[in-house]
User: Fold this.
Amino acid sequence: MEGIIGDGKNQGPCRKLSFREAILDPDAFSVTWELVPGRGAWEESQQRVLTMAEKAAKDHRINGITITDNPGGKPAILACGLAVEAMKYGVDPIIHFTCKDKNRNDIESELYALARSGVENLLVMTGDYPSEGYMGGPKPVFDLDAVQALRLIARLNAGNDIPAYKGRMTLKATKFFPGAVVSPFKQTEAEVMTQYYKLHQKVKSGVRFIISQLGYDARKFDELLRYVRLNGFKVPVIGNIYVLTLGAARLMNRNAIPGCVVTDELLKILEEESSSGGFKGKQLLRSAKLYAVMKGLGFKGVNVSGQGLSYEDVVYIIENGEELSPRWEDFLPEFDFPQREGFYFFERGPVSPLNADRSVNRAGYESMNRRNSGNRSRRGRPISYWLLVLVHRLVFDPEAPFFPLAKGIARLIDRSSFKGAFTLLEYFIKTLTNECRFCGDCALHDLAYICPMSKCPKQQRNGPCGGSYEGWCEVYPGKQRCIYVAIYGRFKGAPQEKKLAGNYISPCNWQLYRTSSWLNYFCGRDYSGLRESLPEEGRVRDG
Assistant:
């Protein structure tokens, strides 16, 4: 395909790379433009997405558009519908594919429809907590987390093997190009480390690209790239550029847009710039400088977004970003907005505000982690945790001395009339100790005896979402800590810490709902007895 640079006045036709081609081409720098459709079918916001998509299609420097999926947890037109329309103009769409509003069957059905329509680029993420809808607040679903959704996509790409009338059958392989999001812009050690541990899970589950969350701290962008290189992840990383308005900055500053970080210091500068005039121009120039910084640091591309951003604004950022790129180090001091008492995985380097290749001694952050986890006991591990560990080591661990006896008794109970009474007894005990939701597919022993089904509003079983703020849960800020802050506090420094990066937990099997998780465990019916393997064809090797 041929595209035109800018308005075509200065240069002639040039071959336009698709998003996938740009990401995989070692000499290309990918640019995508995020567009946000609104509620309704024929409203102005929907038409604007298509108008901007048509303009993007004619510019060879813009390799694709990203289309959001119900941002802010509010209803909007389905991203895949607009993506199919946008493709008619010759633009490559990347849709935000979230898990918040759909169960696993609906997710799989939508994937088949996307594959048939030719929409293959997916940015897989947890999604914002649902906030409003028809006749009040909608029921959040979160049947799969992002890691589990990536594994499903990998299975479809390998040719899904499914039950059939006579034996089994293999479906035709899809060609999805899935990506994922990671946020280095977190304040506490526990938040940063669990974000990175979840990234390990995403890479192992087949991601083909990574996009960072929003922030304005060059040291954090540098940290993300260094962490990826340190762990040998062979996955390109894209930086996120958001052109700020003062209103959006104020919302991000108080975490009203979860996961996006604008510090008090940056907000003060923005308010001063707003009072002196020419605010939008200053933000476009700031974004162009960030473009240059990201290119200089080694990002594989950028994703440009912002409220009401025009095609001309995007062109300005690209053209000025390219022009400023040779001097990218000069602009680093303009992106030095660390969070208060913020944790960094690497030590500060000789070039401020970047990092050295040496990781910090995390043992020195133990007191901060204990304070932020809400635990005052030694190493963030309360007495109740040690009691549950003792029970597991005596009874539930396959190497435990009483495991054979417990397994035999469980299998007898499972076939007896006492099964119902035993199930109610377990539910009563676990409701008192862990606020049990009776899912029957318990992951407590893999998550430091903190239940993700009852204590995480998004029911995340393989790591945190991106919405936590200063250790607090996105949904209950100031009231409830993110469960992975507490989990990390219990696992830190122990062999179990590696579980957060390497121990995949399958989605809850709701056929086991209102049954005994203890009986399911000993009888091999829960996820621990049905370990899910990833098809070799769907893997992206991380070393």
